[in-house]
Amino acid sequence: IDANVLDGGFMTTEVIRGSGFVLRVKPGVIDASRCLSTGDGLSIATAGTLSSFRIRSRDAFSNDKTESSGASWTSSISLISRAPQDSASLSVGDIAASYRDNLDGSFTISYSTTRAGLYSLTASSSTGPNVTLDGTPRQVRVYPSRAAAASTVVSGAGISVASVDGIASFTIHSYDAFGNARTQGHESFAVMAQGGWTRAIDSSTRATTQVQGHVEDLNNGS
Q: In degrees to the nearest 10, what's the CA dihedral of 141, 136, 112, 110?
């Protein structure tokens, strides 16, 4: 900035000593409706796993904030509809997210839930004039975690009865550690049948028999 001397109301070419001042114009307060958000946590998540997304802070004129602003963010996800085969009550409280100021004008929002289903995500800033994050509320699909042996169940006659001249079969229904039914494939299971007589009717001795089962992925969690 140059500051010139006035003479009779007219600007002269005489500049004030030290002119050539440097003026830094900083962004204004955060306007959440102008902020940008990115990250997988805005649309998909996995049960029991910490999910996150990032908010780039901007003011009402879309100027990027480049340092800590002293603001805070509030975000939560609310269950809209339960996942397939979910037998639990639909009622569930809102899940609050936590935020971290990255001190560069951006914030990281993190949340976690153990229940699969479709959720609504909201986010708002503590500063105005507009406090609701652009694009929210929005829907987030929370998928089951990987299958857990302790939760997985089997059904079918082949688990207890078979014949030497036929094929025995049963179905494995996979669930994650939180009781969410798996609805997609790509899990890995191995089936081994082991047994037999150690002594046959004719008193001859036989070694224990092992039979490797064939596992077919039905691509629906079974």
A: 130
pLDDT tens digits along 19-49: 777 888 888 888 999 999 999 999 999 999 9
Q: Name the residue among 154, 167, 165 with its Cα closest to residue 214.
A: 167
The rounded Cα 94 to chain-centroid distance in angstroms is 15
Low-confidence winner among 63-77, 78-92, 180-194 (lowest mean pLDDT): 78-92
φ, ψ for residue 180 (rounded to 5)? -80, 130
pTM > 0.85: no
The first and second tokens of residue 201, run together, are: 């009717």
Per-residue DSSP letter, 147: B
* Paired tokens of 12: 């002269």
Cβ(115)–Cβ(93) below 8 Å:
no
User: Which DSSP symbol is given to 167?
Assistant: -
User: Going along the chain, which residue ranges are E strands?
Assistant: 4-7, 10-15, 36-38, 44-46, 51-56, 73-82, 95-96, 98-101, 106-111, 117-125, 138-143, 153-155, 171-173, 192-195, 209-212
Tokens, residue 197: 């007589």
